[in-house]
Design goal:
449 residues, alpha/beta
Length: 449
Amino acid sequence: MKIVHRILLIALSVLLIILSFEPFAFRFLALVAWIPFLISLRGAIFRVAYRLGILHGMLVFGGALSWTLHIFSTFAIALWFILSLFPALFAGLSSQTTGKWRPLLIATLWTGLEFLRGELFWLHFPWITPGTALPPNFFTPLVGVYGVSFLVLLGASFIIASQRLKQLSGAFLLLSIWLAPHFHFSKSESPTIKVALIQNESMNYDDYRIATTELEEQVDAIVWPEYAIGFDPTKLQGVQAEIAELLGSEAKVFVAGGKSWLDDDGDIYANTAFTFGRERILGTHTKNRLVHFFAEGEKGTEAKSISSPLGQIGTPICFDCDHQDVIRRMTADGAELFLIPSMDAAHWSERQHLQHGQLFRHRAAENSRWLAIASTSGLTQIINPKGETVASIPLMEEGSLVGLVSTNDVTTPFQIGGWIIGPISLAGTSIITIVMIVSSIKKRLNAKA
Protein backbone atom coordinates (compact mmCIF):
# COMPACT_ATOMS: atom_id res chain seq x y z
CA MET A 1 0.00 0.00 0.00
CA LYS A 2 1.35 3.43 -0.95
CA ILE A 3 2.16 5.78 1.89
CA VAL A 4 -0.26 8.39 0.57
CA HIS A 5 -3.10 5.87 0.83
CA ARG A 6 -2.08 5.06 4.38
CA ILE A 7 -2.11 8.75 5.30
CA LEU A 8 -5.55 9.23 3.73
CA LEU A 9 -6.87 6.33 5.81
CA ILE A 10 -5.32 7.89 8.92
CA ALA A 11 -7.04 11.19 8.11
CA LEU A 12 -10.42 9.45 7.69
CA SER A 13 -10.02 7.63 11.02
CA VAL A 14 -9.05 10.87 12.78
CA LEU A 15 -12.06 12.70 11.35
CA LEU A 16 -14.49 9.97 12.47
CA ILE A 17 -12.97 9.87 15.97
CA ILE A 18 -13.13 13.64 16.46
CA LEU A 19 -16.74 13.73 15.24
CA SER A 20 -17.71 11.01 17.74
CA PHE A 21 -16.71 13.24 20.69
CA GLU A 22 -18.10 16.54 21.93
CA PRO A 23 -19.06 19.03 20.73
CA PHE A 24 -20.21 17.00 17.69
CA ALA A 25 -21.11 13.79 19.59
CA PHE A 26 -21.98 11.62 16.57
CA ARG A 27 -21.32 8.69 18.85
CA PHE A 28 -22.29 5.92 16.43
CA LEU A 29 -19.19 6.86 14.37
CA ALA A 30 -17.01 5.43 17.15
CA LEU A 31 -18.09 1.96 16.05
CA VAL A 32 -16.21 2.30 12.75
CA ALA A 33 -13.75 5.12 13.46
CA TRP A 34 -10.81 2.80 14.20
CA ILE A 35 -11.33 0.61 11.10
CA PRO A 36 -9.47 2.92 8.65
CA PHE A 37 -6.60 3.14 11.14
CA LEU A 38 -6.28 -0.64 11.26
CA ILE A 39 -6.43 -0.87 7.47
CA SER A 40 -3.64 1.71 7.16
CA LEU A 41 -1.33 -0.62 9.09
CA ARG A 42 -1.73 -3.58 6.71
CA GLY A 43 1.60 -4.85 5.44
CA ALA A 44 3.59 -2.11 7.17
CA ILE A 45 6.89 -2.89 8.84
CA PHE A 46 7.20 -1.95 12.51
CA ARG A 47 9.01 1.33 11.85
CA VAL A 48 6.44 2.57 9.33
CA ALA A 49 3.47 1.47 11.46
CA TYR A 50 4.95 3.18 14.52
CA ARG A 51 5.24 6.46 12.63
CA LEU A 52 1.68 6.11 11.35
CA GLY A 53 0.60 5.62 14.95
CA ILE A 54 2.40 8.83 15.98
CA LEU A 55 0.63 10.70 13.19
CA HIS A 56 -2.75 9.23 14.14
CA GLY A 57 -2.27 10.05 17.81
CA MET A 58 -1.09 13.62 17.25
CA LEU A 59 -4.05 14.39 14.99
CA VAL A 60 -6.61 12.69 17.25
CA PHE A 61 -5.43 14.24 20.50
CA GLY A 62 -4.66 17.58 18.89
CA GLY A 63 -8.12 17.72 17.34
CA ALA A 64 -10.23 16.28 20.15
CA LEU A 65 -8.24 17.95 22.93
CA SER A 66 -7.65 21.31 21.28
CA TRP A 67 -9.01 22.87 24.48
CA THR A 68 -5.80 21.92 26.29
CA LEU A 69 -4.19 24.89 24.52
CA HIS A 70 -6.34 27.12 26.76
CA ILE A 71 -4.83 25.47 29.83
CA PHE A 72 -1.23 24.59 28.95
CA SER A 73 -0.55 26.86 25.97
CA THR A 74 2.09 25.43 23.60
CA PHE A 75 3.04 22.77 26.16
CA ALA A 76 -0.21 21.06 25.09
CA ILE A 77 1.59 19.96 21.92
CA ALA A 78 4.08 18.04 24.05
CA LEU A 79 1.16 16.48 25.90
CA TRP A 80 -0.38 15.33 22.60
CA PHE A 81 2.96 13.83 21.56
CA ILE A 82 3.34 11.90 24.82
CA LEU A 83 -0.19 10.53 24.50
CA SER A 84 0.42 9.62 20.84
CA LEU A 85 3.20 7.24 21.89
CA PHE A 86 0.52 4.76 22.98
CA PRO A 87 -1.27 4.42 19.61
CA ALA A 88 2.21 4.43 18.03
CA LEU A 89 3.31 1.43 20.08
CA PHE A 90 -0.01 -0.25 19.36
CA ALA A 91 0.42 0.36 15.63
CA GLY A 92 3.94 -1.04 15.62
CA LEU A 93 3.05 -4.16 17.59
CA SER A 94 -0.28 -4.87 15.87
CA SER A 95 1.31 -4.60 12.43
CA GLN A 96 3.43 -7.63 13.33
CA THR A 97 0.49 -9.84 14.36
CA THR A 98 -0.60 -12.65 12.05
CA GLY A 99 -2.75 -15.77 12.04
CA LYS A 100 -6.28 -16.61 13.05
CA TRP A 101 -5.87 -15.03 16.49
CA ARG A 102 -4.93 -11.65 15.05
CA PRO A 103 -8.26 -9.90 15.92
CA LEU A 104 -7.95 -11.02 19.55
CA LEU A 105 -4.31 -9.91 19.69
CA ILE A 106 -5.17 -6.49 18.24
CA ALA A 107 -8.00 -5.94 20.74
CA THR A 108 -5.73 -7.03 23.60
CA LEU A 109 -2.90 -4.73 22.53
CA TRP A 110 -5.16 -1.70 22.18
CA THR A 111 -6.97 -2.25 25.48
CA GLY A 112 -3.81 -3.04 27.41
CA LEU A 113 -2.09 0.14 26.23
CA GLU A 114 -5.26 2.18 26.77
CA PHE A 115 -5.49 0.90 30.35
CA LEU A 116 -1.81 1.72 30.88
CA ARG A 117 -2.32 5.27 29.57
CA GLY A 118 -5.52 5.87 31.51
CA GLU A 119 -4.89 4.26 34.87
CA LEU A 120 -1.19 3.55 35.47
CA PHE A 121 0.96 5.90 33.38
CA TRP A 122 2.17 8.98 35.28
CA LEU A 123 -0.16 11.22 33.25
CA HIS A 124 -3.09 8.80 33.85
CA PHE A 125 -5.20 10.35 31.10
CA PRO A 126 -8.26 8.20 30.25
CA TRP A 127 -9.98 10.65 27.85
CA ILE A 128 -10.59 9.97 24.15
CA THR A 129 -11.03 6.21 23.95
CA PRO A 130 -13.48 3.97 22.03
CA GLY A 131 -15.24 3.09 25.29
CA THR A 132 -15.81 6.72 26.28
CA ALA A 133 -16.75 7.84 22.76
CA LEU A 134 -19.80 5.59 22.84
CA PRO A 135 -22.65 6.35 25.23
CA PRO A 136 -23.14 4.03 28.22
CA ASN A 137 -24.62 0.85 26.78
CA PHE A 138 -25.60 -2.73 27.50
CA PHE A 139 -21.97 -3.79 27.97
CA THR A 140 -20.92 -0.93 30.28
CA PRO A 141 -22.20 -2.48 33.56
CA LEU A 142 -20.76 -5.81 32.39
CA VAL A 143 -17.17 -4.97 31.42
CA GLY A 144 -16.77 -1.19 31.85
CA VAL A 145 -15.28 1.28 29.39
CA TYR A 146 -12.09 -0.71 28.87
CA GLY A 147 -14.13 -3.79 28.08
CA VAL A 148 -16.18 -1.78 25.58
CA SER A 149 -12.96 -0.55 23.94
CA PHE A 150 -11.85 -4.18 23.70
CA LEU A 151 -15.10 -5.15 21.96
CA VAL A 152 -14.92 -2.20 19.54
CA LEU A 153 -11.38 -3.09 18.45
CA LEU A 154 -12.28 -6.77 18.27
CA GLY A 155 -15.24 -6.02 16.01
CA ALA A 156 -13.16 -3.67 13.86
CA SER A 157 -10.43 -6.31 13.51
CA PHE A 158 -12.97 -8.92 12.43
CA ILE A 159 -14.41 -6.57 9.80
CA ILE A 160 -11.04 -6.04 8.10
CA ALA A 161 -10.31 -9.80 8.07
CA SER A 162 -10.41 -11.64 4.75
CA GLN A 163 -12.93 -14.30 5.78
CA ARG A 164 -16.60 -13.45 5.24
CA LEU A 165 -17.65 -15.17 8.49
CA LYS A 166 -15.29 -13.00 10.54
CA GLN A 167 -16.52 -9.87 8.75
CA LEU A 168 -20.13 -10.73 9.55
CA SER A 169 -19.18 -11.52 13.15
CA GLY A 170 -17.47 -8.15 13.50
CA ALA A 171 -20.45 -6.28 12.07
CA PHE A 172 -22.80 -8.16 14.40
CA LEU A 173 -20.63 -7.36 17.43
CA LEU A 174 -20.45 -3.64 16.66
CA LEU A 175 -24.18 -3.41 15.97
CA SER A 176 -24.85 -5.26 19.23
CA ILE A 177 -22.92 -2.62 21.17
CA TRP A 178 -25.09 0.09 19.67
CA LEU A 179 -28.50 -1.60 19.46
CA ALA A 180 -28.61 -3.98 22.44
CA PRO A 181 -31.11 -2.82 25.07
CA HIS A 182 -29.40 -1.37 28.11
CA PHE A 183 -30.01 -3.85 30.86
CA HIS A 184 -29.34 -2.20 34.18
CA PHE A 185 -29.21 -3.41 37.73
CA SER A 186 -30.89 -0.67 39.70
CA LYS A 187 -34.06 -1.12 41.67
CA SER A 188 -37.32 -0.15 40.03
CA GLU A 189 -38.41 2.26 42.79
CA SER A 190 -38.76 5.92 41.86
CA PRO A 191 -36.08 8.22 43.31
CA THR A 192 -37.17 9.98 46.48
CA ILE A 193 -34.05 11.74 47.82
CA LYS A 194 -34.08 15.42 46.88
CA VAL A 195 -30.66 17.00 46.33
CA ALA A 196 -29.62 20.59 45.66
CA LEU A 197 -26.47 21.21 43.60
CA ILE A 198 -24.90 24.68 43.53
CA GLN A 199 -23.06 25.84 40.39
CA ASN A 200 -20.85 28.88 40.92
CA GLU A 201 -17.21 29.54 40.00
CA SER A 202 -16.45 32.19 42.60
CA MET A 203 -15.00 29.66 45.08
CA ASN A 204 -16.18 32.04 47.78
CA TYR A 205 -17.80 30.54 50.86
CA ASP A 206 -20.27 33.40 51.29
CA ASP A 207 -21.47 33.17 47.67
CA TYR A 208 -22.28 29.49 48.08
CA ARG A 209 -23.93 30.11 51.43
CA ILE A 210 -26.18 32.81 49.95
CA ALA A 211 -27.07 30.63 46.96
CA THR A 212 -28.04 27.85 49.36
CA THR A 213 -30.23 30.08 51.52
CA GLU A 214 -32.06 31.19 48.36
CA LEU A 215 -33.22 27.67 47.52
CA GLU A 216 -36.99 27.76 47.08
CA GLU A 217 -37.72 24.25 48.34
CA GLN A 218 -36.64 21.89 51.10
CA VAL A 219 -34.09 19.24 50.15
CA ASP A 220 -32.48 16.19 51.74
CA ALA A 221 -28.90 16.91 50.69
CA ILE A 222 -26.86 19.92 49.55
CA VAL A 223 -23.69 19.67 47.41
CA TRP A 224 -21.19 22.44 46.73
CA PRO A 225 -18.38 22.22 44.12
CA GLU A 226 -14.71 21.38 44.59
CA TYR A 227 -12.79 24.08 46.50
CA ALA A 228 -16.06 25.80 47.45
CA ILE A 229 -14.64 26.11 50.97
CA GLY A 230 -11.15 27.59 50.82
CA PHE A 231 -10.30 26.48 54.33
CA ASP A 232 -10.49 23.47 56.63
CA PRO A 233 -13.98 23.63 58.21
CA THR A 234 -12.99 21.14 60.90
CA LYS A 235 -10.34 23.54 62.27
CA LEU A 236 -12.55 26.62 62.70
CA GLN A 237 -15.14 27.19 65.41
CA GLY A 238 -18.69 27.99 64.44
CA VAL A 239 -18.63 26.31 61.03
CA GLN A 240 -20.73 23.34 62.19
CA ALA A 241 -23.38 25.72 63.52
CA GLU A 242 -23.49 27.57 60.18
CA ILE A 243 -23.83 24.31 58.29
CA ALA A 244 -26.65 23.18 60.57
CA GLU A 245 -28.41 26.44 59.76
CA LEU A 246 -27.88 25.88 56.03
CA LEU A 247 -29.40 22.42 56.29
CA GLY A 248 -32.64 23.93 57.54
CA SER A 249 -35.40 21.77 58.92
CA GLU A 250 -35.28 18.98 56.33
CA ALA A 251 -31.79 18.51 54.87
CA LYS A 252 -29.67 15.81 56.46
CA VAL A 253 -26.39 15.85 54.52
CA PHE A 254 -24.08 18.60 53.29
CA VAL A 255 -21.11 17.86 50.99
CA ALA A 256 -18.55 20.45 49.88
CA GLY A 257 -15.03 20.56 48.51
CA GLY A 258 -12.39 22.22 50.67
CA LYS A 259 -8.88 21.82 52.07
CA SER A 260 -7.71 19.65 54.95
CA TRP A 261 -4.82 21.39 56.67
CA LEU A 262 -2.07 18.88 57.39
CA ASP A 263 0.06 21.32 59.39
CA ASP A 264 -0.64 24.11 61.86
CA ASP A 265 0.07 26.89 59.35
CA GLY A 266 -2.13 25.52 56.56
CA ASP A 267 0.81 25.35 54.14
CA ILE A 268 0.45 21.61 53.62
CA TYR A 269 -3.04 20.54 52.65
CA ALA A 270 -5.11 17.90 50.90
CA ASN A 271 -7.93 18.46 48.42
CA THR A 272 -10.85 17.11 50.46
CA ALA A 273 -14.59 16.52 50.23
CA PHE A 274 -16.23 17.17 53.60
CA THR A 275 -19.52 15.50 54.49
CA PHE A 276 -21.52 17.03 57.35
CA GLY A 277 -24.66 16.00 59.16
CA ARG A 278 -26.76 18.20 61.39
CA GLU A 279 -24.60 17.78 64.46
CA ARG A 280 -21.19 16.58 63.33
CA ILE A 281 -18.92 15.82 60.43
CA LEU A 282 -19.81 12.42 58.98
CA GLY A 283 -16.63 11.79 57.03
CA THR A 284 -14.08 13.05 54.51
CA HIS A 285 -12.52 11.90 51.27
CA THR A 286 -9.11 13.03 50.03
CA LYS A 287 -8.76 13.26 46.25
CA ASN A 288 -6.96 10.18 44.89
CA ARG A 289 -6.41 11.33 41.31
CA LEU A 290 -4.66 14.68 41.26
CA VAL A 291 -4.55 16.74 38.07
CA HIS A 292 -0.98 17.02 36.81
CA PHE A 293 0.70 20.42 36.70
CA PHE A 294 -1.80 21.87 39.19
CA ALA A 295 -1.23 22.52 42.89
CA GLU A 296 -3.66 20.02 44.42
CA GLY A 297 -2.00 19.23 47.72
CA GLU A 298 -1.24 15.78 49.08
CA LYS A 299 -2.62 12.72 47.31
CA GLY A 300 -5.21 10.51 48.99
CA THR A 301 -5.07 6.72 48.83
CA GLU A 302 -8.36 5.56 50.39
CA ALA A 303 -11.73 5.34 48.64
CA LYS A 304 -14.26 4.63 51.38
CA SER A 305 -18.00 5.09 51.64
CA ILE A 306 -19.48 7.33 54.35
CA SER A 307 -22.37 6.38 56.60
CA SER A 308 -25.09 9.04 56.50
CA PRO A 309 -28.81 9.45 57.29
CA LEU A 310 -29.43 8.95 53.55
CA GLY A 311 -27.51 5.66 53.43
CA GLN A 312 -23.93 4.88 52.45
CA ILE A 313 -22.64 7.64 50.19
CA GLY A 314 -19.48 8.19 48.18
CA THR A 315 -17.89 11.61 47.65
CA PRO A 316 -15.17 11.28 45.00
CA ILE A 317 -13.76 14.58 43.75
CA CYS A 318 -13.76 15.68 40.11
CA PHE A 319 -10.80 13.91 38.41
CA ASP A 320 -11.36 10.86 40.65
CA CYS A 321 -14.37 10.12 38.45
CA ASP A 322 -12.40 10.18 35.20
CA HIS A 323 -10.92 6.82 36.19
CA GLN A 324 -12.69 3.57 36.89
CA ASP A 325 -11.02 2.65 40.18
CA VAL A 326 -12.11 5.27 42.75
CA ILE A 327 -15.89 4.96 42.34
CA ARG A 328 -15.54 1.19 41.90
CA ARG A 329 -13.69 0.90 45.23
CA MET A 330 -16.22 3.14 47.00
CA THR A 331 -19.06 1.02 45.63
CA ALA A 332 -17.28 -2.12 46.80
CA ASP A 333 -17.07 -0.48 50.24
CA GLY A 334 -20.86 -0.08 50.28
CA ALA A 335 -21.55 3.29 48.60
CA GLU A 336 -25.19 3.38 47.43
CA LEU A 337 -25.26 6.98 46.16
CA PHE A 338 -22.62 9.47 45.00
CA LEU A 339 -22.58 13.19 45.86
CA ILE A 340 -19.66 14.70 43.98
CA PRO A 341 -17.88 18.07 44.18
CA SER A 342 -16.21 18.98 40.87
CA MET A 343 -14.37 21.89 39.26
CA ASP A 344 -14.00 22.96 35.62
CA ALA A 345 -12.85 26.52 34.98
CA ALA A 346 -14.99 28.50 32.54
CA HIS A 347 -11.97 29.51 30.43
CA TRP A 348 -11.23 25.82 29.74
CA SER A 349 -13.98 26.02 27.10
CA GLU A 350 -17.38 24.44 26.61
CA ARG A 351 -15.81 21.51 24.76
CA GLN A 352 -13.74 20.51 27.78
CA HIS A 353 -16.78 20.73 30.06
CA LEU A 354 -18.88 18.50 27.81
CA GLN A 355 -16.16 15.88 27.37
CA HIS A 356 -15.55 15.79 31.11
CA GLY A 357 -19.25 15.55 31.89
CA GLN A 358 -19.53 12.47 29.70
CA LEU A 359 -17.05 10.50 31.83
CA PHE A 360 -19.31 10.70 34.90
CA ARG A 361 -22.05 8.94 32.90
CA HIS A 362 -19.84 5.89 32.37
CA ARG A 363 -19.01 5.66 36.08
CA ALA A 364 -22.73 5.69 36.90
CA ALA A 365 -23.47 2.91 34.39
CA GLU A 366 -20.50 0.75 35.37
CA ASN A 367 -21.59 0.66 39.00
CA SER A 368 -25.36 1.20 38.55
CA ARG A 369 -25.47 4.16 40.93
CA TRP A 370 -27.06 7.60 40.96
CA LEU A 371 -24.50 10.42 40.66
CA ALA A 372 -25.19 14.04 41.61
CA ILE A 373 -22.34 16.34 40.53
CA ALA A 374 -21.96 19.99 41.58
CA SER A 375 -19.42 21.70 39.33
CA THR A 376 -18.10 25.26 39.39
CA SER A 377 -19.21 26.21 35.87
CA GLY A 378 -20.59 22.90 34.62
CA LEU A 379 -21.48 20.34 33.91
CA THR A 380 -23.60 20.23 37.08
CA GLN A 381 -25.84 17.23 36.50
CA ILE A 382 -27.82 14.33 37.93
CA ILE A 383 -27.17 10.94 36.32
CA ASN A 384 -29.27 7.81 36.77
CA PRO A 385 -27.89 4.25 37.08
CA LYS A 386 -28.21 3.74 33.30
CA GLY A 387 -25.72 6.54 32.75
CA GLU A 388 -28.38 8.97 31.49
CA THR A 389 -28.28 12.65 32.44
CA VAL A 390 -31.77 13.34 33.80
CA ALA A 391 -31.18 16.98 34.84
CA SER A 392 -28.47 19.60 34.41
CA ILE A 393 -27.70 23.32 34.52
CA PRO A 394 -26.56 25.17 31.37
CA LEU A 395 -22.81 25.58 31.18
CA MET A 396 -21.16 28.74 32.51
CA GLU A 397 -24.33 29.90 34.31
CA GLU A 398 -24.58 30.46 38.04
CA GLY A 399 -27.50 28.71 39.65
CA SER A 400 -28.80 25.71 41.54
CA LEU A 401 -30.21 22.38 40.42
CA VAL A 402 -32.75 20.53 42.55
CA GLY A 403 -33.57 16.97 41.57
CA LEU A 404 -34.34 13.48 42.80
CA VAL A 405 -31.92 10.60 43.27
CA SER A 406 -32.00 7.27 45.05
CA THR A 407 -29.76 4.72 46.70
CA ASN A 408 -28.94 1.39 45.11
CA ASP A 409 -27.12 -1.55 46.66
CA VAL A 410 -27.01 -4.11 43.85
CA THR A 411 -23.73 -5.43 42.45
CA THR A 412 -23.01 -5.27 38.72
CA PRO A 413 -20.88 -7.80 36.81
CA PHE A 414 -18.39 -4.96 36.34
CA GLN A 415 -18.02 -4.83 40.12
CA ILE A 416 -17.68 -8.61 40.42
CA GLY A 417 -14.89 -8.93 37.87
CA GLY A 418 -15.66 -7.09 34.65
CA TRP A 419 -13.29 -4.29 35.65
CA ILE A 420 -10.35 -6.66 35.30
CA ILE A 421 -10.52 -6.59 31.47
CA GLY A 422 -8.05 -3.70 31.50
CA PRO A 423 -5.42 -5.31 33.74
CA ILE A 424 -5.73 -8.66 31.92
CA SER A 425 -5.26 -6.91 28.57
CA LEU A 426 -2.19 -5.12 29.90
CA ALA A 427 -0.73 -8.45 31.05
CA GLY A 428 -1.51 -9.90 27.62
CA THR A 429 0.13 -6.91 25.95
CA SER A 430 3.27 -7.50 28.01
CA ILE A 431 3.39 -11.16 26.98
CA ILE A 432 2.80 -10.34 23.30
CA THR A 433 5.56 -7.74 23.37
CA ILE A 434 8.05 -10.10 25.01
CA VAL A 435 7.25 -12.85 22.49
CA MET A 436 7.74 -10.43 19.58
CA ILE A 437 11.07 -9.20 20.97
CA VAL A 438 12.36 -12.75 21.48
CA SER A 439 11.19 -13.73 18.00
CA SER A 440 12.92 -10.70 16.47
CA ILE A 441 16.18 -11.52 18.26
CA LYS A 442 16.03 -15.13 17.03
CA LYS A 443 15.48 -14.00 13.44
CA ARG A 444 18.47 -11.68 13.59
CA LEU A 445 20.69 -14.40 15.04
CA ASN A 446 19.56 -16.87 12.38
CA ALA A 447 20.20 -14.28 9.66
CA LYS A 448 23.74 -13.71 10.92
CA ALA A 449 24.33 -17.47 11.11
